[in-house]
Amino acid sequence: MDTIKAVLSRTSIREYDPSVKIDEATLLKILETSASAPSSWNLQPWRFVLIHSPEIKAKLRPFMMFNTPQIDTAAALILILNDLDRYAMFPIMNKMELDAGMITEEHFKVRNQKAEQARATRTKESLDREGLLDCGIVAQNLMIVAQAYGYDTCPMGGFDRDNFMKVLEIDANRYKPVVLISIGKKAKDAKPTLRFPIRTITTIK
Ligand SMILES: Cc1cc2nc3c(=O)[nH]c(=O)nc-3n(C[C@H](O)[C@H](O)[C@H](O)COP(=O)(O)O)c2cc1C
Predict the structure, then answer these.
(1) Which fold does the domain 3-84+134-184 belong to in CATH?
(2) Which of 8, 11, 12 to mutate to test the pocket of ligand 1 (most atoms within 8 A of CB)?
(3) Boundaries of every domain in the chain
(4) pTM of the prediction?
(5) Which residues pair with residue 47 across a beta bridge?
């Protein structure tokens, strides 16, 4: 599917064909492709929780607010988290770049030191704010990549974040839920929506 077609055909699908399952390898491929997104300093603060076990879905259902049709019918849900301690992961990427011959040993050491410094000094607020943008970009990638695979999605902000983190047993001090995305094959079209005319929202200087 070409990119423009994928972007324009994406809509928020709230009811899916419950008989359609998506295998884990395909879901991981969709996530891997989405994670090619740009991020500030290439820190890649997004973390994914891929939810498709019926037991976990049943535990999360009471915390879906007005979004129960999505959890009841979608093949999977993907929770995107912003890792507030993303500098802790930096040495892994740094080593990958060293092993790939992309940086020198000296550069590797300096960068690890800088990351350690940043980890000790950056505020949670700034990491939260910056990561929201990075995670928003990866979320849109995910929805477009899903379209290319022939699947539909719905981004959801309406879920009880605290209880989600408890059920999923994830450290809520470190990871901030950004958005929940359902994925599956649509059973019902989205509600029609419009966009502002481009000249209404654009200033030309
Ligand atoms: C951050 C975010 C949160 C959203 N939360 C919900 C939600 O909780 N439930 C829902 O049904 N749709 C949700 N939506 C989908 C919007 O309602 C939808 O994108 C908008 O109405 C435009 O429709 P379209 O996506 O079909 O083009 C959300 C979208 C975004 C970007």
Answers:
(1) NADH Oxidase (3.40.109)
(2) 12
(3) 3-84+134-184
(4) 0.97
(5) 81
Q: What value, to the nearest 5°, has the Cα angle with vertex 87 and ends 85 and 91?
A: 135
Q: Residue 171 has which token pair?
A: 């450290």
**Pocket lining: 12 vs ligand 1, CB cutoff 6 Å:** yes
DSSP 105-128: HHHHHHHHHHHHHHHHHS-HHHHH
Task: Report CA(153)–ligand 1 centroid distance (Å).
Answer: 10
Please tell me if the CB atom of residue 157 comes closer than 6 angstroms to any atom of ligand 1: yes
Per-residue pLDDT of 64-115, as tens digits, reads 999 999 999 999 999 999 999 999 999 999 999 999 999 999 999 999 999 9
Which tokens is 123 given?
A: 């505020």
Give the closest residue (by CA) to ligand 1 atom 4.
156
CA-nearest residue, atom 17 of ligand 1: 12
Give the three-class secondary structure for 80: strand
